[in-house]
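Comment thread on ticket #2218

A.B. wrote:
> Attaching the input chain for the structure job we discussed in standup.
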Amino acid sequence: MIRSLLIANRGEIACRVIRTARRLGIRTVAVHSDADAGALHVAMADVAHRIGPASAAQSYLCGEKIIAAAKLTGAEAIHPGYGFLSENAEFAEAVIAAGLVWVGPSPSSIRAMGLKDAAKALMEQAGVPVTPGYLGDDQSVGRLAVEAARIGYPILIKAVAGGGGKGMRRVEDEAGFADALASCRREAQASFGNDRVLLEKYIATPRHIEVQVFGDSHGNAVHLFERDCSLQRRHQKVIEEAPAPGMDPATREALCAAALRAARAVDYVGAGTIEFIADGSGPLDAERIWFMEMNTRLQVEHPVTEEVTGVDLVEWQLRVASGEPLPRRQEELSLRGWAMEARLYAEDPARGFLPSTGRLEWLEFGEAPSGRVETGVAQGDEVSPHYDPMIAKLVAHGADREEARQRLSTMLEGSAVWPVRSNAPFLVQALEHPDFVAGRVDTGLVARDGEALARSVQPSREVLEAAANALVGRTRLMGFRLNAPPRRVARFRLEGEPIDIALGEGCDEPVDAVLLAERGEAWQLTGWRRDGVHGAAAGSGAILAPMPGKVIAVAVEQGERVTRGQKLLTLEAMKMEHTLVAPFDGVVATLAAVEGQQVALEAALARIEEEVG
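C.D. wrote:
> Ran it. Output below, let me know if you need it in another format.
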C-alpha cells in the first residue's frame, strides 16, 4: 500500500481524499496557493507545501511545482482529484517519469478518451452505441453544413476537446448553422486550444445517465451501476442521484455491459465514468441510449455511488494504484436504497446565479438521517474569486427515492450561508418541482422553469416573530393606537422594508442584529427602539441607527417635506447597505446625519414631525 500521498488539488475533494488516506494510515501532503494558506485541506493534511500565488495557472495547474513538492515532502504518490490536472496525460506521464505513483488511469487511456471524436470512433469499434452524427476530419464549413443537413436539425455542435458545456451549441435550422459554428470554434479555441468540432443529432428530451466503472492492473473490470445527472443548469450538473429513475433491470444490464466494453477498449485502470445520453421522451430503452464521453477520473458526484454500493471509491483508487486487485468481483456488488447529492454553490440565483464571494460569517449545514456533507470550507473562511465557488456537496441516502429526496431537502432547508449568497433556496425548490418529485427529469427542466425555481424566498411569520423576540429582548418598545391599549412591538427592516412584529414574553437581552435562515435562504434583521407618544400618532418620528455603521448617503435636507416610505439616508454596516425611510408623512425637523459619519447603535440620525393643520 502507498505510504505517503500528495493531493494535487484543493477544496472538498482534497479533504475527501485526505479522510480516506488517514483511515488507511497513509501520510498526506497538501499543496496550496497563497489564497489557500489557511484552507481546510491544508489544516487537515499531515504536511502542507506552498506552490504559488492565487492564480491556478501559477499554482494548481503548474505540474512541475506539484511534482517538485512531492519529491521535497517525500510523497510516493500523487492523487489528482478532479478538475485541474486530473485528465492531463502529459502531467500523468511526468508524474510516472519522476518515479512517483500516479493514482489514475494510464496516460494512453486518458488520451484515448480525451477527444470526443476519437473516443466515439473507438466506441463504435468496441460495439458501444453512439449518438448519430459526424466525426470526420474534414472540418470545412461546407462539409460540416452538408453533414448537419444529413443528420437532420436540430443538431448539436460540440468541441472535440470540450467539457462542462463549453464549446457546445444547439442549432435549430440551416439559417443559424454558420454563426453557431463560428461561435463554438472561438470558444473552443479560447478554452481548450483546439477548435475542432463534431456534430450530433440533438435529442429533444435528453437524460444524462452515466455508469461508474473501475479497472485494475490485473485485467479485472467492474461497473458500480448508474447515476442520473439530468437536472442541469447550462450543462452544469445540479442534483445527481443513484440509481436512475425508471431504470428497469434489463436496460440496466445492457447499459452497464456497454460501459464495461468501453472501459475494456482502452485497458482502463482506476475510477472512470462512461457518460450516456438517453431519449427521455418515453420509458428508458437500451435502444435509445447512446455513448457521449468518458471521464477518466473520479467524478464530483461519486458519493451517491458510494452510498448505494457501500464502496469507498477513493480507497479503491489507492489500492489499485498500489498494484492490488479490485476488492470485489461484479457478483459481489449490488444496489442498496437510493442516494441524492446537491451541489451547494456560492452564487446568487436572484441575480442570474452570479458568483458570490467573501467571508462565511455564518455557515451551517442541515442534518438528516444518513446525511453526508462533503466540504472544503468552514465558518469564517473566505470564498475566493480565484476558484470554483462550490461550498459543499450535501448527500442523502434513503430506503427509496422519496425518502432520499425528503432527507436531502431537510438538509438543504436547514443550511445557512451568510453574507455570501448560496443556491440553497434554488435547490430546495428544484427538489419540490412536480416533475422532479415524479422522476420525470430531463436536462431542459431548469431552462424551462428556472425563473420560478430561482424566485426569492421570504421568511415565514413564525420565523420573523422568533427573530423579533431574540432581537429586541426585554426592551420595552411601546406603540399606541387611538382608544387601544399599549402593546410591545418590534419594528425591524428586512431588505429595506419596515415590518412590525408583536412580541412575546420571556425574551433574551437585546442584540444589535439577528441572522435567520429558512428553506436554505438567510437574512439579517436589524431593529431599533420606538419611543411611545400619546394620542393618535404612530410614533415619535425619531430615526435611529439600527446598528453601528457608516452613513454613506443622505437623501433629504432639514425642513424638507417627506412622504411615508421615502428614502431618508443609507447606512452601511457589515458590508451591507441599510436604507432608512420616513415612518409617515411629515417634515424633516432635525437632520443630524452627515455623509461619511460613523455612528453608534441607536444614534439619533433624524426626526420627522407631522405637519399640523
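A.B. wrote:
> Thanks. Noting for the ticket: The radius of gyration is 29 Å.
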